[in-house]
Amino acid sequence: MAGAGPRAALGLRRWLSSAAPAPRLCVVGSGPAGFYTAQHILKHHGGALVDIYEKLPVPFGLVRFGVAPDHPEVKNVTNTFTQTARSERCAFYGNVTVGRDVTLPELQQAYHAVVLSYGAEDNRVLGIPGENLPGVYSARAFVGWYNGLPENQDLKPDLSCETALILGHGNVALDIARILLSPLQLLRKTDITDSSLAALACSKVKRVWLVGRRGPLQVAFTIKELREMINLPGTRAVLDPADFTGLESAVRDAPRPRKRLTELMIKTALEQPVRAAGAAAPREWGLKFQRSPQEVLPSADGRRARGIRMALTHLEGSGDSAKAIPTGDVEDLECGLVLSSIGYRSLPLDPAVPFDSQRGVIPNSSGRVQGVPGLYCSGWVKRGPTGVIITTMNDSFDTAQSLLEDLQRGVLDISPSREGFGLVESILHSRGVRPVSFSDWEKIDAAEVARGKAAGKPREKIVDPAEMLRIIGH
Question: Sign (positive/negative) of CA torsion 267, 269, 274, 280?
Fold first, then answer.
């Protein structure tokens, strides 16, 4: 971690013991990046006061709205985040949209430093004809739908077809395939929303293809997720052994995770059981490689998607840097449901903040926003939408460390006192906005857990923000 050697730590301790005025800091976004940033600051600075702002009435970002419902163990990090939020030097203000309810310049007047940790609120578009046809959805919206993200509750995906096609070879693509094909009795025990469970109960989808532009050596999913998919009850994997010819020697010297992942795909491709003549196929899923989407094909009446035209590709280069180049040949794949899982994308928050729209990140150096002293960023808006929660944790600690070093070196001037939430509260009040506190959230949490208990689930998520506010008497 930058600057965290023994000498730096000693200097930091000596500096903290002196009677310096308390820095007032704020974090925008209450997902893992926001909470880990706050946690590191509070742990390593005995006087700092940190306020966390969140546009929804509920905290935890993608831990609540992105992690698959059948992966409850990944959500255990919320226990740590809850400890942080309950610290007497930390406060949570939900139901506050920065950029609308309070502007960034107003936050900069109220606090000594501001950290932007608001993640990736959009998705990358395919940029192909037919992308907007009914039956085509972004992975982000589909995941938000089954995870109870308020903005996606009216998605109503059409699951009346037999074949679904997911564009992308990452863990999110595997999550979606697993949710589409999982036996209902497995999903009923999770915190998946009631309405999406009802829709999945009526689903006709029994075949899911995951399609990528590049080859088996470039897939972005991890072995744990692949193994889970291979072992999913009532489904079989359909992998073409021809796709894996010669790969055993190609991965001999690859890093161990890549080698093990490739070996598992090869083993699965070669071990497929031969079906008895006339035997009904169970649900199935498979991987298709070296195909790039050209256009979504409309049904005869032009009203919905009926398939997708793929350009076949060949690879130039090797490993992660290999590029997919169209060969000139195309192939049509029939499907009634297309899910685009090609990545999330961050959006600019305020014209005053530099933003690289090509990469979808705020230009920064170790979390320090270029050209704007006192402004920092962490998480996906800092480095792009990649990595797992542990990656975000390390990245957020790095940003928090930069901020602490700037405080220690006097780069951040904390001599003028700042009002913090005192100033923001009067601004919000004048605009008719009532923030939600962490203890308010705990009431919503208790209501969700009680509803879930009645249905034999860990919780039943409330998906309507108005109902959340009613529960806490707003």
Answer: positive
